[in-house]
Amino acid sequence: MDHFLYRDGVLHAEDVPLTRIAADVGTPFYCYSTATLTRHFRLFQDALAGLDHLVCFAIKSLSNQAILQTLAELGAGMDVVSGGEYRRALAAGVPGDRIVFSGVGKTRAEMEYALTHGIRQFNVESAEELRVLSSVASAMGAVAPITLRVNPDVDAKTHEKIATGRKEDKFGVPITQARAIYAEAATLSGIEIVGVDVHIGSQLTDLAPFEAAFSKIADLTRELRADGHTIRRLDLGGGLGIPYTRSNETPPLPLEYGAMIRRVLGDLDVEIEIEPGRLIAGNAGILVASVIYLKEGEGRNFLILDAAMNDLIRPAMYGAHHDIVPVQEAAAGLELHPVDIVGPVCESGDTFAKARNMPPLAPDDLVVFRSAGAYGAVMSSEYNTRPLIPEVLVKDDQYAVIRPRPSFDEIINRDTLPAWMTPKP
Ligand SMILES: *Cc1c(COP(=O)(O)O)cnc(C)c1O
Predict the structure, then answer these.
(1) Is 31 part of the annotated catalytic residue set?
(2) Residue 378 CB partners (closer than 8 Å, separation 6+)
């Protein structure tokens, strides 16, 4: 459920007509709903109610400061995968003891920075990283709380590029080696074992792979405890999928996910951490674009928009589907026609949808990509020197630009000339 609904024939974000924001800000832009973000965060809180738990928002899915602060004020922790995201979390007012640091390539500088400013735990992904963390922490006279990210060799049955829990994936340590690495961790200075971590992929639409992974983690937890380790926390990662089409997808609900967690892990007497990104942010955001041209081709027609693959790369990168709807509601019973929906970038990959049935549209009409809140703005670029598009946050009847569109001068002046060149006037 989200808060982007038609009212009097015009699509609204909460109580604000998108036509008003478009007239003010210009297209294309991202638009987020505070009510939807809040609702989705609370679904996880409710799903884990009664369990000692922390919901850590995966910053990489949507990292605008206004979004992070909205969630932080609701009590969210944060899952970060870089020093930059760690700084974003701090800047949003999240205390270090609510920040978990994931990722396969943490640098010494990132470790040092997080140890200086506070960290709930590092989710360590290899024995090599563990040793480096031990040396960094020891040199600082600090102690780094850690979990080991375990790769349970479970197929998440999701898109190839976002499956992370099979043994051929680069993530985590093989579950078969986990006990040996925990044994080593226990001997290292500057390291405190606090738990176990797992994250098997993103956009999972079935609970079975989660359950398979969590069962293995439950067994491992018992073995590690028998080995004498203190395992008081399980980080279960993110990955719960969302419906990208209104019609036929029914991914599991957070409540069902929570019930499964209770069933599989409830008797372990552990603190549960989860790291959802997409389910909180995905349907809380849309991308609003304008039609530039309708182009009639041979046997196919093209709807050319002012948004492109640099603004929303998911269709080009993952073959992802986004529902695309007009801001002015199409009259009931209107005949739909198939069009290829594309952007202006000079690549055939810049195609959002092929043969998509759409109502008649004209230049300057507004359209909306639904479910674009997660892995949308954060993956955008300025390819073709197209400025990063603005982000707008709506709350009830208010809206605010939370990242402005840069000017062309700002973009061009980011480049610097070497001393041997003379600047042109
Ligand atoms: C990407 C990622 C997440 C978030 O995944 P979603 O599918 O957006 O919920 C959580 N944890 C880790 C370690 C990740 O890499």
Answers:
(1) no
(2) 60, 61, 62, 63
Is residue 347 marked as binding? Answer: yes
Q: Is the CB of 202 under 6 A from ligand 1?
A: yes
Q: Tell me what pLDDT residue 156 has.
A: 86
**220-247 confidence digits (pLDDT tens):** 999 999 999 999 999 999 999 999 987 6
Q: Quick one: average pLDDT of 356-376?
A: 97
8 Å CB contact between 317 and 307: no
Return phi, psi of residue 129, to 5°: -60, -40
| Residue 243 known to bind ligand | no
Quickly list DSSP for 346-369. SSTT-EEEEEEEE----TT-EEEE
Classified as helix, coil or strand, 416 is coil
The answer to whether residues 329 and 291 touch, using CB atoms and an 8 Å cutoff, is no
Among 81, 99, 202, which is best to mutate for testing ligand 1, by the most ligand atoms less than 8 A from CB? Answer: 202
Indicate if ligand 1 lies below 6 Å from the C-beta of 278: yes
Q: Which of 226, 332, 346, 419 is catalytic?
A: 346
- 61 Cα–ligand 1 center, Å: 8
Determine the pLDDT at residue 157.
Answer: 85
Domain with CATH 2.40.37.10 in the chain: 4-31+282-412
Q: Which CATH superfamily is domain 4-31+282-412 in?
A: Lyase, Ornithine Decarboxylase; Chain A, domain 1 (2.40.37.10)
What is the rounded CA–CA span in Å between residue 105 and residue 55?
A: 23
Q: What is the mean pLDDT of the chain?
A: 96
User: What CATH number belongs to 34-280?
Assistant: 3.20.20.10
| Interatomic CA distance for residues 397 and 358, integer angstroms | 29
Task: Compute how many other C-beta atoms are within 10 angstroms of the C-beta atom of residue 157.
Answer: 14
pTM score above 0.90:
yes
Q: CATH 3.20.20.10: which residues of the chain?
A: 34-280
Residue 248's pLDDT band, with cuts at 50, 70 and 90, is low
Cα separation, 124 vs 105, in Å, equals 10
Residue pLDDT, tens place only, 88-140? 999 999 999 999 999 999 999 999 999 999 999 999 999 999 999 999 999 99
Residue 342: strand pairing partners: 304, 351
> Is the pLDDT reported for residue 380 higher than 70?
yes
- Taking the alpha carbons at both ends of the chain, their separation in whole angstroms is 53
In single-letter form, the type of residue at position 63 comes to: S
CA 374 to ligand 1 center in whole angstroms: 11
